[in-house]
Amino acid sequence: CQVIVHDVNELTEKLFPIVEAMQKHFSAGSGTYYSDSIFFLSVAMHRIMPKEITRIIQVDLDLKYKTNIRDLFDEFDNFPEGAVIGIAREMQPVYRHTFWQYRRENPQTKVGEPPPDGLPGFNSGVLLLNLEAMRQSKLYNKLLEPTMVQKLTEKYHFKGHLGDQDFFTMVGMEHPELFHVLDCTWNRQLCTWWRDHGYSDVFDQYFQCEGEVKIYHGNCNTPIPED
Known about the structure:
The chain is α/β, with parallel strands linked by helices. The protein has helices at 8-26, 45-48, 69-73, 94-98, 100-105, 131-136, 138-143, 146-156, 164-174, 203-207; strands spanning 55-59, 63-65, 85-89, 122-130, 179-182, 188-189, 215-217. It has one domain.
């Protein structure tokens, strides 16, 4: 077992020029803070990790594992042709809210709609990054360019504050083929904030998750069930 520690400041220095343009669209603060770049690490991981690293699992700290994380690595084998990232759906109507203007202008859209047929957006608490595929995908790298980010945020009237998760969600509305959707049991989010903030009528359509949970995600400081 080999453990390599990376210097956060060093990573941020490499990241900043790549993600600076998207920070103003997907950061909580007003403007672009240098330190915010680290919330976009996954987006450009393929550009800053050594070439010999071909696959990475990136996870949040507020997780509880109910199975061996090694089993999650097997999901890389399920990536369809062209997919570069494995990610689970967002389990609250947060993007129903964020895309309100686009949804109003496009009443038939699947954008922001609940599963199984809708596009509820993604949650970046558990990420499978196929760095090799990310490096080779012309489409993915084109989407990192400031002009493309600007074009998509204008099209979807998008203003977010959740960093990489917002970027993946917006790109997923346009190019779902770049993503392998993980089953909800790999990122069973527990936060219910949106249930009490205007979306109680549709909340359960987003929040339900069938099957034995493999990873619990106690997002928004939600307590994780004891065994």
